[in-house]
Amino acid sequence: MLKSFAAKAIVPPAIAVTGFVIVCCILLYSVIKTDMLNDTIQHETNLAGTIVKSARFAMLKDDRETLRNIIDNVGQQAGVEQVRIFNKKGVIAFSAHPKELNTIVDKKEPGCIACHAGAVAATSMGRMEQARRFVNEKGKNVIAITAPIYNEPECFNAACHVHTAEQKLLGILDIGLSEEPLQKTLGVLRGRMIVFCIMVLLLAIGGVSALLRRNVLLPISDLTDYVSAVKKGDLDRKAPACRDEIGDLAHSFQDLAEKLKTAQDKLNKPDQPDDTTANRRS
Amino acid sequence: MKRALDRPTAPDNAGTPPDRDLVKQETLQRIERLRTKSSRGLWAMALFIAVSIVALNDFSLLPSLPEGIRAALGKPPSSIMISGALVVYTFSAIILILSRMMGGSEEYSGFSHVGYLTAFYGFYHFAKALGDNFWAVFAAGITILGLESYHIWNFCSEAIKREEEILAAIERNNRQ
């Protein structure tokens, strides 16, 4: 089957078009996924910044009740899976989940190891390095980001004098959002791209196959039938009519068949003199 | 040039016809060589699938590269840059294979493509983006090597058919 003319004409372009469209779609999906993930992390960073700014006054006044309320209210927002503030030693001081209050964050957790991989913890990181993705205890995919709360002149000059000027980092806000909306959007995008791919492939391969079948394969098949019939002795059969090179070839075969028929007729009637013999006699 | 040298033994200048047994022997050797060559595509495909199995889990089967060598290699290119290169490579490889098919060339470069595709796996691995782009490299590899395999198999099948016709002609002459 693969040795047939149809296979030789259709298989290479079909493989080439199918493969290239699939490669491009996978790469496009991967790029869009990365962009959407970056946007989500950017959105989360902005959210963390907003929370830190809205809690700044409460922190300056050392108003722990207000700060606890802010963290609880943010934690109740749909899509927020976790929100907590822990100090430099990793002790969780505020959290939307009361169970983890006063516990110590594991520095080997995926979100912490990036800073704490070396002997001395890194104090500044890029936005993308701060983000981490994991599955929480509820089985939900979470994108979390840690936003450092730096020591500022207003902090170490405040009346409470809890922090010294040498202390660079006061604590860390850790917020995690559910990946569900992102995964849902990516799922819709994936489905649309698959449908688009199938449509492109059907149009490209179907179009090429249909045109080839109509203009090349069927005329060749008709010509093959005609030549087979001639071979079997059916010399009166008409050649298939085509306006292209296949038509010219069919006419040439028909001419040959007609000449063969004339020659056979002459052989079958040997008593009838041909024109040349008659002329010679006269 | 290579194809011209592979032609059956021609009559010499004195017009002496070539020895039929020698021509038959040479034709049989050429058929054997073509049969071996036609299976090269499958070998390259098998090698690529083996490399892909190793790459599937981010090369976890292999020991990780020492930090010193990794630092010496420098910063890896971004995944977008690698993806752009992969699209350009896939497109140009397909065009080259189709043009070789059109020209009826005997050239086969499947094993080189396995090397290039392995390099793409490597680049994505170092850019920490192999998880998202593995199937793109795999699809590119299957497409390119599938076309190469089809091309070399088709070319060898046609060449074998021509050689078999020569054998048949020799047999006919021997009978006469």
What structural class is derived from the secondary structure elements of chain A? alpha+beta
Give the C-alpha Rg of chain A: 41 Å
Largest sheet of chain A: 5 strands, antiparallel
Distance between the termini of chain B: 34 Å
Q: According to CATH, what is the class of the largest domain in chain A?
A: Alpha Beta
Please name the fourth-level CATH homologous superfamily of the largest domain in chain A. Answer: PAS domain
Helix content of chain A: 55-70%
Q: Unreliable runs of chain A, pLDDT <50, ≥5 residues?
A: none
Q: Could you tell me which chain pair has the largest interface and how many residues each side has?
A: A-B, 20 and 27 residues
The best one-word shape of chain B is elongated
The helix-strand sequence of chain B is HHHHHHH
Number of helices of chain A: 8
What is the H-and-E element order of chain A?
Answer: HHEEHHEEHEHHH
Could you tell me the CATH topology label of the largest domain in chain A.
Beta-Lactamase
Number of helices of chain B: 7
Q: Sheet with the most strands of chain B?
A: none
